Amino acid sequence: MTIQRIDICEIGEIAPLTARFRVELDALKNISSAENLQSARDELAEYLRKGYPVFTCRKDGEALGYCVCRTEDDAVIWLESLYVKQDARRTGAASLLFRAAEDVARSYGQDTLY
Questions:
Q1: Helices (H) and strands (E) in the chain, counts
Q2: Half-sphere exposure (CA, 13 Å, Cβ side) for 89?
Q3: Do residues 104 and 77 touch, judged by C-beta distance below 8 A?
Q4: Which of 18, 95, 100, 101 would give a disulfide with 55, using CB separation of 3.0 to 4.6 Å?
Q5: What is the distance between the alpha carbons of residues 67 and 107, in angstroms, rounded to a whole number?
Q6: What backbone torsions phi and psi does residue 81 show, to the nearest 5 degrees?
Q7: What is the sign, positive or negative, of the torsion defined by CA atoms of 52, 16, 89, 26?
Q8: How far is 113 from 29, CA to CA, in rounded Å?
Q9: pLDDT digits over 36-47, tens only?
Q10: Distance of alpha carbon 103 from its chain centroid, rounded?
Q11: pTM
Q12: What is the tens place of the pLDDT at every residue in 39-89?
């Protein structure tokens, strides 16, 4: 598995993961929703427009999951979202994505990832 930072060109590939993430979050709140790819694309584009680091975990070229690191004033780094698709869970993908987020915090001179 590999971790790579995504750019605007890869939004189309990552958007289905974001859309699924939103549906699963809604389900935790007992809200039934459908995947909205356009909303997911818009969400990812906004993160990238703001300069937030967005990473994907890939295996054999397939995107298994993603994470978004929200940066505030170069002082606080938030793990805004982390998602791994269901059939790739318990493979170490989430751990790799979390480490990428920790690396972002360290690159800003921070010891804490929120």
A1: 3, 4
A2: 6
A3: yes
A4: 100
A5: 16
A6: -155, 150
A7: positive
A8: 25
A9: 999 999 999 999
A10: 14
A11: 0.92
A12: 999 999 999 999 999 999 999 999 999 999 998 877 789 999 999 999 999
